[in-house]
Amino acid sequence: MVEKLERYFVWGLLFVIVGATGVFCKRVLDLRREQAEFIRLAEQVRAVGCETERMEYGHGEKKDMLPEYQALWEENTDFAGWVSIHGTGIDYPVMWTPAEPEYYLYKDFHGETSFGGTPFAVGAGFDLGGEGVVFLYGHNMRTGSMFADLLKYREKRYWEKHSVICLDSLWERRQFRIFSVMYAREQDWTEPEGLFNQVKLETETQRADFLKRIRERNLYETGIEVEEGSEIVLLVTCSYQEKDGRFIVAGIRSELK
Q1: Spans of the chain, pLDDT less than 70
Q2: Of the candidates 245, 125, 133, 249, which has an alpha carbon nearest to the alpha carbon of residue 199?
Q3: What integer pLDDT is reported at residue 31 of this predicted model?
Q4: Exposure of 127 by Cβ count < 10 A (0-12 exposed, 13-18 middle, 19+ buried)?
Q5: Domain-wise residue ranges, the chain
Q6: What CATH class does 32-254 carry?
Q7: Which pLDDT does position 152 carry in this prediction?
C-alpha cells in the first residue's frame, strides 16, 4: 500500500513538473513570437522612414502625420508614437488610451492578450507636446525584451553611452536627454504625498519642487540641466530592489541632432 502511494506521489509530481515546464515553454515561445512582431513593426517603420526626407517640426506644432507611422496608425488608432534608445533593445511602438490608460499592459499592438504587453503613455497631450510630464510604462521581461534594458542604467557607464531617448509622436520626431536615473515605489503613485501622484507643474514653484525631489533620488549625477518649460518623459519599469519596486529613467526634451 505504501509503495503504491509512493508511486502515485511520484507520478503526480512528474505530472506537475511536466505541466509547469509546458506552461513555461509556451510562455517563452509566446514572448518570442510577440518580440518578432515588434521587430517586424520596427523594420516597417525604418523602411518607410529611410525613403522620406528628414523633417523637423516646431515644438508642439501639429503637422501632417509622419509617413513612417501612417500605416501603423491606420491599423490601430491607439498607436501614438515610437520610443527607441540607440544601442539598446528598446525599440517599440507607444500606445495611448486616455480613457483606459493601462489597456495595453497585457495586450499586444493588435489588442490581443499578451504577457509582455506594449509600452503605453500616460499624460495629457502626449501627441501634441507641451510643458508637462509624460510617463511611459513597459514591462521588464526576463527574456531581456521590452524595458528590461532600463535596469542597465544603474551603471553610469551605460548612461554615458546611451544618454538619448528618441520618442516620436505621430506628428514630429523628438529626442530627450536622460538627466536622472532612480528607484521608486508603488506608493509614489498612490500615496497623497507621493512624488508622482497627480503631478502638477502649473507654477514655477511646483516645477522646481518636482525636479528637486527627483534629483534627490538620483543614483548618480548626470550634469544635465533642466530648462524651464521643457517637456519631461519618464520611462518606468518594474525592478526588484524591494516589493512593488520601480525603476525610472527621466529625460528632458532637447533639440534634434
Answers
A1: 1-31, 49-63, 124-131, 257
A2: 133
A3: 62
A4: middle
A5: 32-254
A6: mainly beta
A7: 96
